[in-house]
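Can't attach files on this board, so I'm pasting raw text. These are the components:
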Amino acid sequence: MDSGRAGAILSAAVALVSLILAVDGREGSMVVTSFFVLVFGAIASKRCSLKMNRLILIASFVTLVCTVLTTTVLAQSSVEKDSEFEFLWFYLTAVVHAVPLVPLTFSTFVITASVSEASYNWAVVRGLSPFIAMGMQVPGYVVEYLDSDIVDNGYILYGLLTMLIIMAVFGVILSHYMRKNRLIINENGMVVMG
Amino acid sequence: MNAYEDSKERRVAWILLFAAPALLAVVCSFVVAGIAPGLDAGHPEEYLVATCFAWAVISLVVPILRLLNLVSLPPMLIAAIYVNIFFYVLSLCGGLYLNVSWFGDFGHVVSSAIVTCIVFVGLCLIEAHSPAHVTFGNRVGMCIMLLLVALSFGGIWEMIEGFTDGVTGNAYMVYGAADTMGDLSADLIGAIVITICVYWYLGDHSPSDISSKVRFGRRAFEIDGESD
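---
Top answer:
C-alpha cells for the assembled complex are below.
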C-alpha cells in the first residue's frame, strides 16, 4: 500500500471518528466540518496530488481535535445562559469552529478545480476565501437547527464574524504569497503559472 | 452600444433614481403617521423608518452606477432586485413578518434566491474580466462556488441584524438563536433552488452569455461611431 493511499484511509478514519463524536455530542457545526473532510478526502485520494492529500490529513486531525474540544471542555452544557463565561464561550467556540475551515477553504479551491478544471488566481482567492468559509459554516447551523437548544444568537454571530475575520486575514496572506510567486490554484494545488 | 439603447437605459435609470426612493418614502410616511400595520404587529417605529431609509439609499446604487456609465445590469435582474427590495420593506411595514408565522422563512427563501442570482452574475463577471488562465471551470465548478458564496450572504445578513442590535440597543433578533438558524435554513433552500436552476441553465449556455448582458467599465458604454 503506498503512502498516498494509506494517508487517504487514515484521514477518512479520523474524519469518521470526528463525525461520530460530533453527532454524539450534538455538535452540528463539527458534523458538517467532519463531513467536508470525508468528502474532500475521498475526492482528493482519486484526483489530487500527494501534497493535497497530506493537507486533508492534517485538516482531519485538526477537525478531530476541535470536535473533541467542542464536545467536552467547550460543550454547550458547560455554559450557563447570561453568565460571565457565556461571552468567552462564544469567542472560544467561534475560534475552534473556524480553525478547521481554514485548510478546508483552501481545499475547496483545489477539490473544486479537480472536478471542474477550474483555475484560480490570487485575486479570486483573496476575494472569495471569506465568503467560501462562511458559506461552509452555514450548513453547520442548519444541522444544529434540527436539534436546537443554542443559548443565544451570540453563538452564531460571533462564529460567523470570527470566520470572516480569520479567513480574510488568511486570504490576504495566501494571495500575497501566490501573487509574489506567480502561483495559481488548480487540481494539483498551487502551481506556477505557465 | 448604440445611442437608442443608451438613451433607453438612461431613461429607466432616471426613473428608478427618483421613483424607488419616493415610493419608499410613501411607505415610510405610513409608519411615521402611525398607521403602518407593522407597528401594531410589534416593530418599533425607528426600526421601520431606518429600514425604509436604508433601502431607499440602497435603491439608488443601480441607477447611479448606470448614469455614471460604470455598470449596466440586465433588465430582468434589475426587476428582481427592486421587487425584492419592495417585497421586504412592504412585508415588514405591513406586519407580515410578525403576524404570519411562516412569512419570515418565506421571505428569506425569496431574498436568498435573488441574492444567489446576483452572485451568479457577479461570478460570471469575475470570470469574464479575469486573465484567460482564471476560470470557474465547468458548470459543476461554477455551481459549487455559487452555492457557497450565496450562502455566506445569509450569514452576513444575520450579522448585520446582530450589529444593529448592538448599536441601537434594541433586540431586533427577538426570536433568538432558533429563529436565526431558521432564517439560515431558509437561505439554504433559496440558494439551492437557484443553484439547481443555474446548473440546468449552464447545460446550454456559458457564463459569457450572462457577462455579455452586463456592461462594466466606461469603455463598454461608448456609443457606436463615437470612437471613430
